[in-house]
Amino acid sequence: MYKIKVNTSHTFEVTKENMDTLDVVETSNNHYHILQNNTPIKAEILSTDFNQKLYSIKVNNNTYDVDIYNALDQQIEALGFEIGASKQVNDIKAPMPGLILEINVKEGQEVKENDPLLILEAMKMENVINSPREGIIKSVEVKQGQTVDKNMLLIEFEN
């Protein structure tokens, strides 16, 4: 089963059976004719980002941004982590509310994948936040002893 989010506001669940019953014909490259309940629909794929599973689709002259979540993405989301290809992460956000116990990096520092960036205490547990990729630290947005909320920006990488 896939979870599809349209324009970051509407979420739909689609099964393989749903997709198999869809009446779709590709009329030209990235252009499709869809028949749903005897109603014709024209669709065009405007842009794709395969790694991030992001698509921009034009349906009957309306443009929609579509995110596709597979089973693994849904499990990761359920655990409270960000979805997407971890190698392309440009900022680190707090996965949960907590207290910054220790910061192990500074602006301009070069880090390797899995280097410890900081320690976040949450629910009486120390959580080491490791670097998701190699890169250079652009900014550190928090200080030791600071309380943070979920999804608060902690560290930014240079692109």
TrEMBL record:
Domain called Lipoyl-binding: residue spans: 80-158
Record's keyword terms, sorted: Biotin
Keyword Phosphoprotein: no
Record-linked SUPFAM superfamilies: Single hybrid motif
Domain of life: Bacteria
InterPro entries (alphabetical): Biotin_BS, Biotin_Carboxyl_Carrier/Decarb, Biotin_lipoyl, Single_hybrid_motif
Cross-referenced Gene3D superfamilies: 2.40.50.100
Protein name: Biotin carboxyl carrier protein
Organism: Winogradskyella pacifica
